[in-house]
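Exercise 7b. Backbone tokens:
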């Protein structure tokens, strides 16, 4: 049971769309079970995120002076990370905009130097704590919520009703180290 919890915690700390190779594949499969979207939607999000990330890495100006992460849920893209100037922030968004099937882009890239490894580890820990709390909250469909943490700012994405959104925000706000919670929800019903 302890090993299952460790694998589950590891899988929950990942910020990409769900599909994890190796030992965490079983835990990722559990996460997909709770994601009520069709498999085609999940795979489309994975393709969008990978294509956008690849295009950003292919651009030498962005690749050399930026740390940008791409998250996709239900064809909504969230860009987080850091870049050295506003022009590169806009360039990153313009590059990602060329990826087909994107409905909306939220560009939350900060114009400043890259975060430290300690900050990145703290962000991963915050994400893991939030996801674990959500999973333990009765009635919350946590599989429909994606949690991304960047420099203490928590972004919540997904398809939820308003009550679930409030519950998710309350959970995130109570986790130590969270500076701010940003909702990027699509509301159902």
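Sequence design result:
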């Amino acid at each position: 049971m302890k090993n299952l919890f460790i694998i589950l915690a590891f899988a929950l700390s990942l910020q990409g769309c769900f599909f994890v190779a190796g030992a965490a594949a079983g835990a990722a499969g559990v996460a997909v079970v709770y994601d009520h979207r069709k498999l085609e939607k999940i795979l489309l999000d994975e393709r969008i995120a990978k294509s956008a990330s690849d295009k950003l890495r292919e651009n030498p100006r962005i690749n050399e002076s930026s740390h940008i992460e791409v998250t996709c849920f239900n064809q909504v893209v969230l860009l987080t990370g850091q870049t050295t100037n506003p022009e590169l922030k806009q360039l990153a968004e313009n590059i990602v905009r060329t990826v087909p099937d994107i409905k909306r882009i939220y560009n939350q890239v900060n114009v400043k130097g890259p975060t430290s490894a300690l900050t990145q580890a703290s962000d991963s820990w915050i994400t893991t704590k939030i996801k674990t709390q959500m999973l333990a909250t009765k009635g919350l469909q946590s599989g429909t919520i994606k949690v991304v943490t960047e420099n203490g700012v928590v972004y919540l994405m997904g398809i939820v009703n308003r009550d679930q959104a409030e519950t998710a925000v309350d959970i995130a706000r109570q986790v130590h180290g969270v500076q701010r919670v940003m909702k990027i929800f699509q509301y159902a019903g």
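Instructor comment: The mean pLDDT is 85. The helical segments are 2-13, 25-34, 39-58, 60-65, 86-97, 117-136, 162-173.
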